[in-house]
Amino acid sequence: MDKHLIIPVVLLITLVYFIIKKQQKVYNTILFSIVFLMPFYQNFFHYRHFIVIIAGAVLYLGGKSEFTKYTRTPIVQSMIVFFCVTLLSAVASKYPKLTITPIIDLISFYFFFSVCLTSFNKQKNLSFTTNALAITLVVSVLVQTMQLLGFESFYIYDPEKLNANTGLSEGNETALVRFWGTFGNSLTFSSYLSIIGIFLFTTYHRNLNKKIKSFSYLVFGFALYSILLTSGRTALMALGAGVFVYCLINSWKKTTITSLAIIFLLFIFSDTIIKLLLDSGLGMVSRFTYSGNDKDFRLQLWTRGLSLFLNNPLLGIGPGNLTIQIAPIIKPIYDQSKESLTIPWGHVENSYLSVLYTFGVLGFSCFFYMLYKSFIYCYNSLRVSLSKQVKDLSCSLLCTWIVIYINMVSNPAFVTDYRMISLTLFFVALSLHNRICNKALLAIAKSHQTSHREHIPQAQPVVSY
Fold first, then answer.
1. What is the C-alpha to C-alpha distance for residues 357 and 346, in angstroms, rounded to an integer?
2. Helical H runs in 21-126?
3. Terminus-to-terminus CA distance in the chain, angstroms?
4. Which of 17, 49, 153, 414 sits most deeply, having the most CB atoms within 10 A of its CB?
């Protein structure tokens, strides 16, 4: 059997079993499948096959109304407008045929988002989803560690076909010092680790159970260790920022004092620290201490891509057109292979600019609004919620969004890689679900207050004679 069909077939059999038994555990199965299989999207099975199966299961269970229930929410409306802008951008593009695949992908992404939101809404609590994420993290780190130790059976991707982000150039040789884990791309894997790591750490750390709270530090250690093996500089910085925001939410005074003390110590001992790192002989360390021409390369790429954007600033150059149109412009700094020209989602080493150049100001506004609104939902829920569970999830999501925003600056995978697009939509759905829960609780509390007032006997007016 084709390797791209094995996982969908197994998933289909599992879902059919639960549907026949009429067990609501089907939603647990869907969420676990989404989380656990995410690192393998489009590599070991076709993403669209997966979406058809899980969306079909939800529709069969009566989830049709759920797919259209929240069309009036600002986030979903921004998605709808974004899709309409994409169609206009496709029509105005230079190569309309190249836009077909991205448009179909957008439909798949919306169904994925709807399945996630429906599944969250069917859960009594999200501990199952959190634990599924923890299992996925542990498995990913285990695979990466086996790669570090040289066990070739854990090279789940052909080393010769690995992305360039798995190697570090040193002279005329390339040393494999950036371990790719379950992703096959260490840069993308590092972003994934920082996002999952901060979400799990903050979620477990806010738990009242001391054992679970202690477990949060182990999870954080796993994520940090794995990011170091990927040599992901932006991911490491994003993870640190996420922890800083989390500490700031809990106690801004302690966080400020501690941060100033750490900055002061780093400043005092900076020369000694750099010397120790450079003399350590570890290949991965050089990645953090020496950026080479990365900054200049990215700046040139962003600048050269801007000329294409200015040809049609409102609608951009169109979905599927960025890679092939930018190739002649960036050839002096980066000679793209023929295989890369067939990639439907092009990029300029920055998720925000990739969206802006591809879909123009109109499309970028919808994209940015979706990200902004997700953050605001979490912020408002943390500020006014009456439920500890909602507040805890809001806190975790706020820190997670900070990590996502930072990773998007230098990693284009959030708009080019099916796995990272899905991960982003996963957290968009979770943020919207948290908002829905918070509004429902506030409405119930308000109705109880109103009902209580109605049953209080009205005081009789005092009449003076």
1. 10
2. 25-37, 47-60, 64-69, 74-92, 100-121
3. 98
4. 414
The letter for the amino acid at 4 is H
d(CA 216, CA 185): 26
Let me know: does 16 contact 26? Beta carbons within 8 Å: no
Helix (H, G, I), strand (E, B) or coil at 396: helix
Helix, strand, or coil here: 426?
helix
Beta bridge partners of residue 170, listed in sequence order: 173
3-state SS assignment for residue 347: coil
Out of 62, 89, 104, a domain closes at 62
For the CA atoms of 348, 351, 356, 359, what is the dihedral angle to 10 degrees?
A: 100
More confident residue, 12 or 370: 370
Residue 30 · residue 57 · CB < 8 Å: yes
Which of 385, 377, 386, 380 has the alpha carbon at shortest distance from 73?
377
| 252-267 residue pLDDT tens | 666 667 666 666 665 6
Does residue 40 belong to any structural domain of this protein?
A: yes
Domain housing 275: 133-290
Token pair in block for residue 335: 């000679």
Q: 3 vs 39, 44, 65, CA distance in Å? A: 15, 6, 34
Nearest C-alpha neighbor of 351 from the set 401, 274, 406: 406
Task: Quote the DSSP letter at residue 348.
Answer: -
**SS3 labels along 247-294:** HHHHCHHHHHHHHHHHHHHHHHCHHHHHHHHHCCCCHHHHHHHCCCCH
Domain identity same for 48 and 75: no
pLDDT in tens, 151-187: 888 888 877 767 666 765 444 444 556 788 899 888 8
- Buried-exposed string 324-352: b where 16+ CB fall within 10 A, e elsewhere: bbbbeebeeeeebeeeeeeebbbbbbbbb
- Write the burial class of residue 45 (CB in 10 Å: 0-12 exposed, 13-18 middle, 19+ buried): buried
Q: Who contacts 319 (Cβ-Cβ below 8 Å, separation ≥6)? A: 86, 89, 90, 93, 98, 99, 102, 103, 344, 345, 358, 359
DSSP letter (8 states) at residue 173: E
